[in-house]
Design brief:
- The chain is 68% helix and 0% strand.
- By secondary structure, it is mainly α.
- The protein starts with 5 loop residues before the first helix and ends with a helix.
- It has helices at 6-30, 39-48, 60-77, 94-115, 119-147, 154-166, 175-187, 206-209, 215-240, 248-272, 281-301.
- It has one domain.
- The longest helix has 29 residues, at 119-147.
- Helix 7 (175-187) packs antiparallel against helix 9 (215-240).
Length: 302
């Protein structure tokens, strides 16, 4: 299958819809009607038409942070395939560049928060940096477990994983989707790591870093965050969904259904769990790292 721009186009168009699915599931559990499924689209378009209020203490770092964050996430999506449809870009070891593009976008957002000079935003930036430092090695352990003792491209990772799980019955590889789902919650600051709906000082991580942003810059951050959620959900789905090379429509339908299934699962988790204490989150990341290391060891011993 040749490379295609379709994976990137699907992400750019459908990513904000995942947030609508999550919010609707949470509303259903709470007995409410909930916001419209397209609410994030409305919010982004509204913010793009608004002006900005920028503190006089900030520099160009604050203004550039959201744009860099959005650009790096879009660039990272260029390397992630959509099932059997290859990504626009890809080469041996591209998973390293993809991971560090995401990390660079997070770094830009942290710098923008620190540039405000606010101790409150600095607290959130410190928490974001601490948790990402623990999560990043787990990401590479997952990729290494999928690739075994070779370093292919992301497409080769997912093709091999799908074949091993569905053709050769390799149950140890099912640990990887579980770890990737935990990483999705951590990297996107969802419950039980962070509560995106709260504004309490003791619980805020991601939201506190963007309190000073407004207008188009806030729209960039919201859109980039939805794209980042899509990216991590796509990594998970690419491992789980079997490939159908002879039926493109079935493959697309299964992939899209699985993507929105991940959004439903996130909504269920956020409805049934509470936010963990900050001191417990590193233990959770340590447990996910142990699971990823176990999958890698079992793969190498196979």
């Amino acid at each position: 299958m040749t490379s295609s721009i379709l994976p990137l186009l699907l992400a750019l168009v459908c990513a904000p819809f995942l947030a609508g699915v999550i919010n609707r599931v949470k509303a259903h559990f709470a007995g409410r009607k909930g916001r419209p499924l397209l609410q994030l689209y409305f919010d982004i378009f509204k913010l793009l038409r608004k002006g900005e209020v920028i503190s006089q203490t900030t520099t160009w770092v604050f203004a550039a942070g959201p744009s860099v964050y959005l650009a790096t996430v879009i660039c990272a999506l260029l390397f992630v395939p959509f099932g059997i449809i290859r990504a626009p870009l890809g080469f041996t070891g591209d998973f390293i560049l993809m991971a560090y593009l995401v990390a660079f976008g997070r770094f830009a957002l942290v710098l923008a928060a620190l540039d405000t000079g606010s101790a409150f935003e600095g607290m959130g930036a410190s928490r974001e940096a601490s948790f990402s430092t623990l999560a990043e090695p787990v990401v590479f352990l997952c990729f290494l477990a999928l690739g075994g003792n070779i370093w292919p491209s992301l497409h080769s990772f997912f093709h091999a994983a799908s074949m091993q799980i569905w053709t050769f019955a390799r149950p140890e590889l099912l640990l990887i989707p579980a770890v990737l789902f935990m990483l999705l919650l951590v990297e996107n600051c969802r419950i039980p790591v962070d509560d995106p709906n709260t504004h309490l000082e003791l619980t805020m991580i991601h939201e506190v870093m963007i309190l000073d942003h407004s207008g188009p810059n806030l729209a960039f951050i919201l859109y980039a965050s939805s794209l980042k959620l899509w990216l991590f959900a796509l990594l998970l789905v690419n491992v789980l969904v079997p490939e159908f090379p002879d039926n493109m429509l079935m493959e697309l339908a299964l992939m899209l259904a699985a993507m929105f299934g991940v959004a439903v699962l996130v909504g269920v988790v956020e409805s049934c769990m509470v936010r963990l204490r900050l001191l417990v989150v590193p233990r959770m990341l340590g447990m996910t790292g142990m699971l990823a290391a176990l999958a890698l060891i079992l793969t190498l011993l196979r």
